Prior knowledge:
Blueprint: E1 3-6, E2 19-22, E3 31-34, E4 40-45, E5 51-55
Amino acid sequence: MGAAAFKPENVTFHGEANIRDFIPPKSKVPRRFCKKCGSYIAEDARPVLGVYALPIGLCQDPVEKIYRPAQHIFYDSRIM
Length: 80
């Protein structure tokens, strides 16, 4: 899944009461999900990278060129 990283001051979450955070075991990065439907919203990578990672693969509209993936992370542990 493609993701785009944004500085925290450039991200606003609406409906915070409907968002739950989950921290997987042995992780420092909370994942944010919708409490109502369970959809993945973002990774709160502020503790390790200082950014929010927002999924762009879920966008209904075409992703602008500047937000298209430019790097592979966790490439060595990908599922073949």
